[in-house]
Amino acid sequence: MDKLYSRAIRLSRRYCELLDLPESIQRQVEEIYYEVQDKPDLKGKRLEVVIAATVYLACKRNMVNVHPAALEPLADVNQLKILKLTKILLRHIPMVSVHSSEYVQLFCSKLQIPVE
């Protein structure tokens, strides 16, 4: 493992712990970073911003509500840069489609409403 990758893993674990995110999201952040780490679009970008964007993207994929403003103090950067980098990351990873019925089931379970 090279130094940058191991630093990125440590940083992603720290961000996930500070945001109190589950281990599954932590693993997904690592997978996303592994897929995009050598892309030319990310050359010259600060590692903190890249990890913040991958954490945000993993949370969105798992329907965990984390606002980019929560990542601002961790990465010490404006939320607009995090969102811009998220769009760049989306070009390099496959999209995951979520059906609307999954959203309904999620919100009904949070509101404790029975779903038929």
Order of helices and strands: HHHHHH
Task: Kindly state the number of beta strands.
Answer: 0
What amount of the residues lies in strands? Answer: under 5%
**What are the segments in which pLDDT stays under 50 over at least 5 consecutive residues?**
none
Number of helices: 6
Question: For the terminal residues, how far apart are their CA atoms?
Answer: 49 Å
Largest sheet: none
Mean of pLDDT:
86
Shape: globular
Description:
With 116 residues, this protein is mainly alpha-helical. 66% of the residues lie in helices and 0% in strands. It is built from 6 helices and no strands. Helix 2 crosses helix 3 and helix 3 (47-61) runs antiparallel to helix 4. The radius of gyration is 15 Å and the shape is globular. The model has no long low-confidence stretch (mean pLDDT 86).
Brief account:
It is built from 6 helices and no strands. The protein has 116 residues and is mainly α.
List keywords for this structure.
single chain; 116 residues; mainly alpha; 6 helices; 66% helix; 0% strand
Write the layout of secondary structure elements.
Layout: H1 3-18, H2 23-36, H3 47-61, H4 68-75, H5 79-90, H6 100-111
Helix pairs in contact: 1-2, 1-3, 2-3, 3-4, 3-5, 4-5
